C-alpha cells in the first residue's frame, strides 16, 4: 500500500507525519483483558483531565487546528480521539463493537491521535491519498449515514473517501471476519517519535489480543 500526502494537506500542515500499520489478524467479538486496559485508562484520565484540558493534548490540539485551517468547526465535527476521551470523562461507557474496533479506539485514546482502522481487502487500488473533502462529496460514515466531509482531511482510494479523523467509511470498515488490517495514525502535530510509539503500541496490542505477530509499519510524510 502506497500512501500519498497531497499538497492540500502539506499547505495546512507542513509538519504532518503518519504511520501505516499492516498486519494479519484474527478478530473476536469481545476481549475482557482489552477492556480492562480501556477502563484503567479511563480512570486515569478522569483523575487527570477535563473536557477542556483534553483539547490541549498534542495530537488533539493539532488536529483541531488543521480542521480550522481546512474550514471545519472542530467542536461540531470532533476528531474521534477527542470524542472518545470526552465520553470517558463524562462517565459514559464507550461503545463496544468487536476486538479490532475496541483495540483501535484504545490506541487512539492512549496517544490522542485520530486513527483509522480498515479492512485492507476492501480498498480499491494500491494507493491511498490524504487530501481534503470537497463540497457534495459522497461519504457514508460508520453508523452515521451520509456526512458532510467538506473541509475534513480525508483518505481516498481509487473509488473515493475511506477515512477521516471524525469517522471512517462504511465501505472499508473492519468486520468480524477481517483478517488483513491496515491502521493509519495521523500525527498532525509532527511528532514522529510519538507516532512511532503509537504504531508500536498497536503492534503490541495486536500480538496480545488478535493472534497476530504485530505485522509491520512504515512512516509517511
TrEMBL record:
- Cross-referenced InterPro entries: B3/B4_tRNA-bd, Phe-tRNA_synthase-like_B3/B4
Q: Name one GO molecular function term.
A: phenylalanine-tRNA ligase activity
Pfam families reported for this sequence = B3_4
Q: Where's the B3/B4 tRNA-binding domain?
A: 61-211
Q: What Gene3D superfamilies does UniProt report for this protein, alphabetically? A: Phenylalanyl-trna Synthetase, Chain B, domain 3 (3.50.40.10)
Q: Looking at the record's lineage, which domain of life comes first?
A: Bacteria
Protein's UniProt name: B3/B4 tRNA-binding domain-containing protein
